[in-house]
Structures are given as C-alpha cells and as structure tokens.
C-alpha cells in the first residue's frame, strides 16, 4: 500500500519556545488588563472564589485539550476540528471570537504605546499634574489632597474647592483619570473643551502597534519564538517590583483587605459567577484561535499535558498578583483622598491605565519605572496579539493552503489581515470609541459566546470524541496518563457549570452599561448580532453535515463523528509514521 508523505511541518526549534509562548500568552491582556477591573467591579475578594472554582473545573481541562488538539492534528483551530466534522462549527466560532478580540487588543497596545511615549519627559509625568490643557477645575493631585480636607461628591465635575476651603472629590478628580478620559479617550466633555474629535495621537500609536505585530509574525514562529524569551519573563519581573512597592504604600492594607476578605453574601449574585467563569475562559484563551495554533507547532511527542499542569497556574498567579497590586494602590489612593475605596476610580476597561500610572509615579525614579511598566504592557499586548494573529493565520492556512504556502504568500496574507484589522480599529478612535470598544469586547469576544463554545467543546471531547479515547491519545503522544479528574470534567462538571452560567446569563441579562452610560437597545442588538456570529456557527455546521450525509439520520450522525483525512494513511511530522500512529489511523479509518 502506498503511503502519501506530507511536507515536513514547521515546529518550535526548542520545546522551551512553546512553553515561553504559552506563558507569555497567559500573562497577557486577559490577566493584566481585564482581571483587575472585573475583580473591582464584582466585589473584590468574593470574585476570587468562583474564579478559582471555574479555573480548576473549566480552564485547566479545556486548555489541556486545546493545546493537545493542535499537537495531535498538526492543524490550526479550523483544520483541527476535522477530527469531529459534526462539531467543526466550534472552529468557525473561534474564528469570529478571535476577530472580535483582536480589534480591541490592538487598541490596548496603542494605549500602551501612547503612555510609553509620554513617559519620556524631563518634567513631571503628565498624569500626575493638573496644569495640562486637558485638566478641568475639578482636578485634585495627591499633594493637594494630602494638604486639604476632602469631601466626596456624586457629581461628575465642578470646582475642586468649596466655599469652606474643602476639596470636593469626584471619581473624575484625579489627574490620571482626566489624562485617561480627556486626553487618551477624548470623551466629549464641555468643561475640558473636548468635543469628541478624532484621536490623532492614538492613531499614530495604533500604527506603531500594527507595524510591531507585522514584523513579529512575518516569518511565523521562526521569528516570534525568539522574542518570547524576553516578553514572557519581563512582565513577571515588573509585577514583583510593583508588588513590593505597592504593599508598602500608606493605606495599602485597606485595599488588600478588600481584595482578600470576601463579602460572602455577594456569592448569591449571579453576575459575579457569570463574569468570573467568563473571565477564566477569556484569560486562558479557551475557544480562541491561539492555544490550538501554539500546540500545532509542538513536536508530536511533546508532553503538553505535564506542562499545562503548571502553565495554567502560572497564568492564574499573574492574575492574582495584578489584582493584589491594583487593590494596594487603590487602598493608598482612598487613604490619601480620605474616601471609600469604591469611590476612588470608576471601574471599567481603563482601570489599569488609571491605577498603575500612580503606582509607578510613587516609586523612586518614576520616569524610569513608568517607561518599564508601559514597555511591559506593550510586550504583553504583543504576546497576546501575536498569538491570536498567528492563530488566525493558521486558520487561513487550513482553509486556503496556497495563501501561506511560500514566505512571499504568507507575507502578503499577513499584510492583508493586518490592514483589515487596522481599518476596523479606526472606528474606535472617535470620542465615543471606548463605547464601541466595550461593545465589541463584551458581546463579540467574551460572555455568552465563549461560554457556549466552551460548553459545546466539553460535550464534544467528553461524549462525541469520547474522554477515554482522548486519554489514549494523550498517552500515545506524551507517555503520560491523563488524570481521571479530567475525564469527569469533560463529561459532567464543565457541561453542568457552563450550562448553568449560560442560563443565569440569559435570565439576568440587562442592556450593557459602562460607568453611567447605558447602551441603547439598537446598540445591544448590534452586540447580540456579533455574539450570534459565533454562536450560530455550531448549529449551522451540524445541520449542514447532517444534510449532506448519506443514509439514515443515525448513520449520518455517526459519519459526522468520524475523522476526515486526505488519504488513508498520513505520515508523522518528521516524514515517518510510527506503528502507534498507524494504529490510531486504522482505528479511525473512514471513507473520504
């Protein structure tokens, strides 16, 4: 029998490159940018309880499966699901989720570049003073608050000194908040003279972001695999330094108490569980394109199972540390301003960019620390964006191999994809761009669409692929035995938790609200359309496969669970097929 040989696949030069890429991805924006503001929004310490539970039940098992799926099939997120054609809609759903996440990701990188550029100044850091063109009369620096008595006002603006000489504090009083809202976002504000004009400074930063991603991904993992040695480790160095400084700030203990001492009564709030479970799926890249793409470049016998057992906790550690630093600085700000910690800064997607500039400004040589911190944010964004961008490129390669068949073709495909994302990102640069950003992030790249995909994925590996078969596959590839706990997660725990949270989400759904702004119905309908782009992929593909099949409905269903291959036997990665691999192919042999 003739055995058709495939072209030797690209793999990581060293297994450690895969490990560093995964660590860099998991210390990414989901953990450093998104976790702190969701934690603050949902009551601090109480958020950690459902987060830890869903981390163990959902994130670790599904992350292990996705990295193994890429390694086993040697395909990206789309091609890998040829293993179970009936559920290939999960791959298409991941494509839409990744697209909707990349647009906000690139803007976050642009914000980091803008802050980094303003750190190179010989004067005070611009977010620490109140004498800038974007500051309003309500601006209060930390020095002013230290020397005056303050009182909290619910109003969004106003003069910062009352008739009695008391400072009137609002959530928009701090200079870093005004730098963020009035200069970076340019939200329309009559008092500051901002009318929501197009954001040219962020446009320049956004161009820099896309140029970076282009050059990092132009040669695929051969270039990016070397970058991650630095980008994956530097954030941890910065986090440890910021942690040491933040916990020594006056008043930090109040913030730490709010972070570590939960109000257990809030566990009855369904929203806390919904956002905690959603965050664990989001921050570990579950049902995105990146994790499977990273696994694709592993060698067939790489022990992905063993590395996952410590890489996932490392990602959780970065989230926990970032939250610790955030709440320590919030505690200090609340102490200096003499306000409650919940009144310091309004929770939202810009929390990190309003808290950490203060933290680095309070360190010795603040300009140097500011540069280092925003270099960290930049590299974290590079890691996240590269991984998702590469994930999309592998999906393009799965669907249209000629587009990535040569370095020249890959370069043009990179350019085309990058230009498309750049043009889509421009709509976030108006004065109302932050609301477009949050609409896309909330509906298109998190929440219900991720939970739905995770639910379908767990049912697939637990029942359709069969958890016992996946255990044998892991044994064949790595030599390790998959823990029985994973089997029960795939078959029972994940479907129960994910379906319960989905039900809560639907029952408790309310129109999206960011700060004091509630989105109109038409905007929420646009959001639901983005969610449906990924949600409907799964049932549509199931219907299509059943419709195109032959025989009875039962026969069509069984045929839809069988792997599709281009030939009866396919050689291994290095040009030779082992007896174990041949046996697996025989076990799953089906007509083309």
Short description:
It is globular, with a radius of gyration of 25 Å. It starts with 14 loop residues before the first helix and ends in a 5-residue tail after the last helix. The protein has 592 residues and is mainly alpha-helical.
Radius of gyration, in angstroms, nearest whole number: 25 Å
Classify the fold: give the CATH topology of the largest domain.
Amino acid/polyamine transporter I
Major sheet, described briefly? 2 strands, parallel
Low-confidence stretches: 1-6, 149-166, 566-592
Q: Please state how the strands of the largest beta sheet are arranged side by side.
A: 1-2
Can you walk me through this structure?
The chain has a two-stranded parallel ribbon with strand order 1-2. Strand 3 (513-514) and strand 4 form a beta hairpin. The chain is an all-alpha fold and 592 residues long. It has helices at residues 15-26, 29-41, 45-73, 89-119, 142-147, 175-185, 200-217, 221-231, 234-247, 252-260, 270-283, 290-296, 304-337, 351-361, 366-399, 407-425, 433-444, 448-464, 467-478, 484-507, 521-535, 537-548, 553-560, 579-587; strands spanning 150-152, 167-169, 513-514, 517-518. It is built from 24 helices and four strands.
């Amino acid at each position: 029998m003739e055995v058709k040989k495939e072209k030797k696949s690209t793999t990581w030069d060293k297994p450690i490159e895969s490990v560093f890429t995964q660590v860099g991805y998991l210390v990414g924006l989901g953990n450093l940018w998104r976790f702190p503001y969701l934690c603050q929004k949902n009551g601090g310490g109480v958020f950690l309880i459902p987060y830890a539970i869903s981390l163990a039940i959902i994130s670790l098992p599904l992350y292990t499966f996705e990295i193994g799926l890429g390694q086993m099939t040697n395909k990206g997120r789309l091609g890998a699901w040829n293993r179970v054609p009936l559920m290939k809609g999960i791959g298409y759903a991941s494509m839409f989720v990744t697209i909707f996440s990349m647009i906000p990701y690139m803007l976050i990188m642009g914000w980091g570049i803008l802050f980094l550029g303003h750190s190179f100044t010989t004067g005070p850091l611009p977010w620490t003073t109140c004498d800038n063109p974007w500051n309003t009369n309500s601006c209060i620096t930390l020095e002013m608050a230290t020397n005056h008595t303050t009182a909290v006002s619910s109003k969004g603006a106003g003069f910062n000194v009352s008739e009695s000489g008391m400072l009137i504090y609002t959530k928009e009083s701090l200079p870093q908040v005004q730098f963020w809202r009035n200069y970076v976002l340019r939200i329309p504000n009559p008092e500051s003279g901002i009318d929501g004009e197009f954001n040219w400074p962020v446009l320049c930063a956004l161009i820099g972001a896309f140029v970076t991603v282009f050059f990092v991904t132009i040669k695929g993992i051969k270039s990016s695999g070397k970058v991650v040695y630095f980008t994956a480790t530097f954030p941890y160095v910065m986090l440890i330094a910021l942690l040491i400084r933040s916990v020594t700030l006056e008043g930090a203990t109040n913030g730490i108490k709010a972070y570590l001492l939960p109000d257990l009564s809030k566990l009855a709030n369904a929203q806390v569980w919904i956002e905690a479970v959603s965050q664990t799926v989001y921050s570990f890249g579950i049902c995105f394109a990146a994790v499977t793409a990273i696994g694709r470049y592993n060698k067939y016998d790489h022990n992905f199972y063993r590395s996952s057992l410590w890489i996932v906790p490392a990602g959780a550690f970065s989230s926990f540390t970032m939250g610790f630093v955030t709440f320590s600085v919030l505690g200090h700000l609340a102490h200096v301003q003499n306000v409650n910690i919940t009144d310091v800064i309004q929770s939202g997607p810009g929390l990190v960019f309003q808290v950490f500039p203060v933290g680095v400004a309070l360190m010795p040589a603040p300009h140097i620390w500011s540069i280092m911190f925003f270099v960290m944010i930049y590299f974290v964004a590079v890691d996240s964006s590269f991984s998702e961008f590469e994930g999309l490129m592998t999906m393009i390669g799965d669907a249209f191999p000629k587009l990535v068949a040569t370095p020249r073709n890959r370069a043009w495909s990179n350019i085309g994809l990058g230009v498309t994302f750049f043009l889509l990102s421009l709509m976030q640069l108006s004065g109302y761009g932050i609301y477009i950003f949050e609409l896309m992030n909330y509906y298109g790249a998190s929440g219900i669409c991720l939970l739905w995909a995770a639910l379908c994925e767990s049912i697939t590996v637990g029942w359709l692929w069969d958890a016992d078969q996946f255990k044998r596959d892991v044994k064949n590839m790595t030599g390790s035995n998959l823990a029985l706990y994973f089997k029960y997660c795939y078959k029972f725990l994940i479907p129960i938790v994910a379906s319960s949270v989905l039900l809560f989400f639907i029952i408790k759904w309310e129109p999206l609200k960011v700060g004091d702004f509630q989105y109109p119905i038409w905007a929420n309908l646009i959001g639901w359309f983005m969610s449906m782009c990924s949600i409907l992929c799964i049932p549509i593909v199931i219907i299509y496969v059943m419709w195109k099949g032959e025989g009875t409905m039962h026969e069509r269903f069984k045929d839809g669970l069988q792997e599709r291959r281009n030939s009866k036997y396919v050689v291994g990665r290095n040009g030779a097929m082992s007896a174990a691999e041949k046996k697996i192919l025989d076990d799953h042999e089906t007509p083309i």
